[in-house]
Amino acid sequence: MTGYFPVRTLQTSAHVSSLTFGHSGHIFAGCDDGTLRVYDLSTFKVLKAVRSLGSEVSSIACVKRPGSDLRDAWIACGRGVYLFQMDSPAMVLTPSDSLASVDICSPDGDDVLNEISLDASKSRLAFCTDNGLVGVIELGSKSVSIMKTKHDNVCGCVKFIPDRPRELVSGGYDKALIHFDYTQESVLSRHDISLQPTNGSMSFSPPFILCTALSDAGVIAAGTADGHIWLGRGGVRLPSKGKKTRKWNGLDSERASLHKLANGPIVTIAFCNSNTLIFSTLLGNITELRLNHDRKQGEEHVLPVWQQQAKCLAKVNALVVDDKKLVLGGICRDGKGIIEIWRKDVITP
């Protein structure tokens, strides 16, 4: 049996709002004061920093460049995105050092960017906004396309669908998951999460979709504000079927299941592999789940196999995981920003 053990905490002066791995030895951490830091996870020292971005760093997407150990980084901040070459000679970068920038939200409104996501070719960047917009940036031409349908409320998550170069899926506070063909700027499918009272009790938190994750096999998981995880298996690729289906069917309600797994908002979620999922609640309850799908019966069995409370975090904003470690970011009890690094290891009963 395996689990995770805390090995290090790193404090920042501002709240940690986003995290991503560069490669397995580097963690990129964005903060709500418009700064970003790159940490070496072997020495826990800052290798590079970006400052004076002006708004919260809401999301980070890294790109490998031949000849550089440090990944380049697309950073979502306020109304636009910036590209930084992190192996620049300067230790601290500012917006004037960015290689490219793209303004997305209107300067006259109050809209801001939330999540960004790179496609498999690293040539397109999907984005979503507080006003419910979903779109794609062609990184070569810097052209921006906006989907014709928007969410009715905040859209906090968007991702390209693995092995589907034309398709992406978004989730929002309107309780909707929307599946787009971004080349046509059109909706391919949609699922609205509506919950029934469980065991005679009623939740006082609506099922706002706060986070999503997609496995390489095409399973989608969505975490909600009332502690549920919605799992969609309609888009799973089955090698025995041979030819790929015309479109991803991950939002098919007949091949989906809903699971009450927490007492508070599930704010961040990630697949470790196609059968293992990790999530954290807002208050730092971290859970690893084993997904056992009975194909014959069409039933999903969700088994918690490891659970722990974050050590110093009072509020979790971000989580990333790979095959050796788990990293959490957010706010500690004294109001400062904090990163917790956990190592995967074998648990002795």
Automatic annotation (TrEMBL):
It comes from the Eukaryota. This is WD40 repeat-like protein. It comes from Guyanagaster necrorhizus. The lineage of its organism: Eukaryota, Fungi, Dikarya, Basidiomycota, Agaricomycotina.
